[in-house]
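Before a colleague's protein record goes any further, I have to sign it off. What it holds is a sequence and that sequence's fold in token form. Would you go through it and say whether the fold makes sense for this chain? The record follows directly below this note.
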Amino acid sequence: MTKRILIIDDEQDIRETTQMCLEIAGEWEVLTAVSGKEGLVKAAAEQPDVILLDVMMPDMDGLTTLQNLQKNPQTKNIPVILLTAKAQAAEQRQFTQLKIAAVITKPYDPFTLSDQVLQALVDRSV
């Protein structure tokens, strides 16, 4: 069974690199969205197995997008992994307060990204 992942990130290079890593290394079916608003629509319509969500985006940031995903009955049970350059201890503590599956810090290792996503899903189901 193919796993489906939705990448929500405003940076085209990040989306493309992440998509390639997940398709090649993890055999994921990858959906992408360029904004929080587009991501909300795609998440509800496509029902991916997991969402990889950038924290810093214009218009609607990742945390606002996360809140909207969690408020929507159609998307509230989809695991969300935050993808962020924010690696400060205070920010990491803030992220642990959220109902998320994991945090992956940019820059990430493209060769282990698929494994990190799978591990987050395993840890979440335990």
In short: The helical segments are 12-26, 36-46, 62-71, 89-96, 113-125. The longest strand covers residues 4-8.
